[in-house]
Specification:
With 206 residues, this protein is α/β, with parallel strands linked by helices. Helix content is 43%, strand content 21%. Strands 3-2-1-4-5-6-7 form a 7-stranded mixed beta sheet, covered by helices on one side. It binds glycinamide ribonucleotide (GAR).
């Protein structure tokens, strides 16, 4: 069976990338294959995870490219050269411009560590999301996987999973629980969902 060609965009530790790699091994992700990892941070541990799994890994930074437009052009070139069908943002800490997104409509998904529409949009990323959830005092949080459009964290929701906030939680403890109980589960599931959709659309067109 033909598989959707997936690129994963990362910036840091890459535990969500690892969940995708593991899902590929255990068959949760079977309609798509990760063929490329792009990091916008040269020292991201995610790059090591990719290489250890035998996946091509590139570093493309805004600084090296000299600005957002050139940075996105360099990524588009790499993605098009490898005929990427689906882009998965897995801890990618840079907001993509409407121009970039227009090249991959309904072909980019993102994992966000809250139940959107809470604690999302510009400025809400990584630990900041959990700090905000604790400061507000919510008793339930979670993770969301959504399509990426021109509005930060504003695209249609694919999957969500709730996680309890516990007394005495620190942002780091809450982040760990949200990753383990939600992100690492729903991101591979959503990648499979969209990959199988892409494959079906391609078969229909032939
Ligand atoms: C994850 O919690 C992810 O949801 C979040 O950053 C972390 C990256 O961890 N992403 C965002 O906040 C994007 N707005 P990872 O590198 O170990 O996957």
């Amino acid at each position: 069976m033909k598989k959707a060609r997936i690129a994963v965009l990362v910036s840091g530790g890459g535990t969500n990338l690892q969940a995708l790699i593991d899902a590929q091994k255990n068959g949760v992700l079977r309609s798509g294959e990760i063929v490329l990892v792009i990091s916008n941070n040269a020292i991201a541990y995610a790059l090591t995870r990719a290489r250890e799994a035998g996946i091509e890994a590139l570093t493309i930074t805004k600084k090296d490219c000299g600005g957002q437009e050139a940075f996105e052009d360099a990524m588009l070139e790499a993605l098009k050269a490898r005929s990427i069908d689906l882009i998965v943002l897995a801890g990618f800490m840079s907001i993509l411009s409407p121009r970039f997104v227009s090249h991959y409509v309904r072909r980019i998904i993102n994992v966000h560590p809250s139940l959107i529409p809470s604690f999302c949009g510009k400025g809400f990323y990584g630990l900041k999301v959990h700090e905000a959830a604790l400061a507000y005092g919510v008793k339930v949080t979670g993770a969301t996987v959504h399509y990426v459009n021109e509005i930060p964290d504003g695209g249609r929701i694919l999957l969500q999973k709730a996680v309890p906030v516990l007394p005495g939680d620190t942002p780091a403890a809450l982040q760990k629980r949200v990753m383990e109980r939600a992100e690492w589960i729903i991101l591979p599931e959503a990648a499979e969902l969209v990959s199988s959709k892409i494959i079906k659309e391609k078969e229909y067109r032939q």
